[in-house]
Write a structure and sequence with these properties.
single chain; 492 residues; mainly alpha; 28 helices; 0% strand; MFS_Trehalose_Transporter; Major facilitator superfamily (MFS) profile domain-containing protein
């Protein structure tokens, strides 16, 4: 399955569709970058608002996006199954339209802060984007396409930083508003996920969707096989089939049965998760990888980029440093998109975690001991950012999108994204107290240790999921799964 060939036309359609879906995270980048270049103006007497913002209001402006994301993320699992992947993705674009519309017309600080919080609701939609992209992508290119959700975020940061220094306050708001509306319009031209269509019993529509994304005939053998494979993953016996507790010929009989129907479940996503040993193990793995990679410290550089550069590299303009940092993130994530399906998730995660550990340790010694010139500090920051985003930053989101069975994919993605928001909050809330207690350099020693823990977990315990369908991935999380993967059922 991992060696399946993708037609150039299918690659183009899946790629363009992915860019449209991942565009949501670009909007997230806008809302995250915007406060960094407006804070000074909001504090001053020359503010465009009715009154300057207080320190408390400034703090809320920078943090409410995370709160909004955390609040709205649990709704993702419900939304993708209730409204479908396509309309759930459109729904999560609406908060951005509302947010920028409010910012465009109001002069009241409280409403601006509330608007940023509303934008945070849209940031939660990355869970929906990941599910949608993974279900329209062929297995051999799934990693590259799902990684674009992270690249999209960095593209949003870079674009917003760039126009922030060129346009007026209201012009920036209007541009962001227009681009938010464009996202919702683009998604109207896409087909719904075939997995969701099979899930609700619309096999003909599912065939048309698969044909659209693979540039094949709806009646072709390729489309028929794909629908059968989706049904196999949704079969009520899937847990027993994977664990070998039922007739070993059951799965093959299902494949041969072209008229098989997906049985309606009365069991909730949570109940299914609790009964599925492989799904629980996959969830634990995703949560560990997500937690460890965030605790590696990159979020600190994203949020405190300008003050860190101002303190560490006073000779460089802070805003220019932030733009270059966002550009570094974007380039690394794009390179990762080409590497993740070539070298695999496991090796990429391991190698970049070790590289990140080296960079954060050297950065810590430079900040602590000041053994080199100022430009060395900047070099280590950029080197760490590049290596980290070459793999460790991307792999958790790729895994989240691909390791779960369709029945719990929405729930699994919601829980993983909730973990992301919580760990972001934890990392940021403890950073300043730790810096005051230990100093900036020793804190980066801690980040280095966590990077090594991430490398160890990836190397010894994380299964390789490159190019595998969801049911084959589940086998990897069961006892002896690594040996069972070669016994995947051949579809005929």
């Amino acid at each position: 399955m991992g060696s399946e060939k993708v037609r150039p036309s299918a690659l183009a359609v899946q790629g363009l569709a992915t860019l449209s879906i991942a565009y949501l995270t670009t909007l997230t980048g806008f809302i995250y970058a915007w406060p960094s270049y407006t804070l000074d103006m909001f504090r001053s007497n020359g503010t465009v608002l009715s009154t300057p913002m207080t320190p408390t209001e400034i703090s809320l402006l920078g943090s409410l996006t995370n709160v909004g994301g955390l609040v709205a993320t649990p709704f993702c699992g419900y939304a993708v199954n209730k409204f479908g992947r396509k309309y759930a993705a459109i729904l999560y674009g609406l908060p951005y339209v509302i947010s920028w519309a409010i910012i465009s017309v109001t002069r009241w600080p409280a409403l601006v802060i509330a608007a940023v919080g509303i934008g945070g609701f849209g940031a939660a939609g990355q869970a929906v984007s990941s599910v949608y992209i993974s279900e329209i992508s062929q297995d051999s290119i799934r990693g590259a396409l799902t990684s674009t959700t992270v690249s999209g975020f960095f593209a949003g940061l870079l674009f917003s930083y760039a126009i922030g220094g060129q346009l007026t306050y209201h012009e920036v708001a209007y541009v962001h508003l227009g681009l938010s509306v464009l996202y919702m319009v683009l998604l109207l031209f896409l087909e719904e996920s075939p997995v969701y269509l099979v899930q609700i019993g619309k096999d003909k529509e599912a065939a048309k969707s698969i044909a659209f994304y693979r540039r094949a005939s709806p009646t072709s053998k390729e489309v028929e096989i794909e629908i059968t494979r989706i049904k196999q993953q949704m079969d009520p016996r899937i847990n027993e089939i994977l664990q070998g507790e039922c007739d070993p010929t059951a799965a093959k009989e299902l494949i041969k049965n072209k008229e098989a129907k997906v049985k309606q479940r009365s069991v909730s996503q949570w109940s299914f998760l609790m009964k599925s040993e492989s799904s629980k193990r996959a969830l634990v793995a995703v949560l560990i990888v997500m937690s460890v990679t965030i605790l590696m410290g990159s979020i600190v550089l994203q949020v405190y980029a300008e003050p860190l550069f101002k303190e560490a590299v006073p000779s460089m303009q802070p805003n220019l440093c932030s733009i270059l940092l966002a550009l570094t993130y974007l380039i690394a994530s794009l390179v990762c998109a080409f590497m993740v399906d070539k070298f695999g998730r496991k090796s990429l995660m391991t190698v970049t975690s070790v590289g990140s550990a080296v960079c954060t340790f050297l950065l810590g010694t430079q900040l602590h001991l000041h053994w080199g010139p100022h430009w060395m500090t900047a070099f280590f920051i950029y080197a760490y950012s590049f290596i980290y985003n070459l793999g460790a930053a991307i792999v958790p989101f790729v895994l989240t999108a691909e390791v779960f069975l369709p029945e719990v994919r929405g729930l699994g993605n919601s829980m993983s994204m909730s973990c992301m928001w919580i760990m972001n909050f934890v990392t940021l809330i403890i950073f300043n107290p730790l810096v005051e207690l230990l100093g900036l350099g020793p804190v980066f020693y801690g980040f280095s240790c966590i990077c090594l823990l991430g490398a160890a977990y990836s190397h010894f315990w994380l299964p390789e999921t490159k190019g595998l369908p969801a049911d084959a991935i589940q086998r990897l999380f069961l006892k002896g799964g690594k040996n069972e993967i070669g016994a995947k059922i051949e579809m005929k």
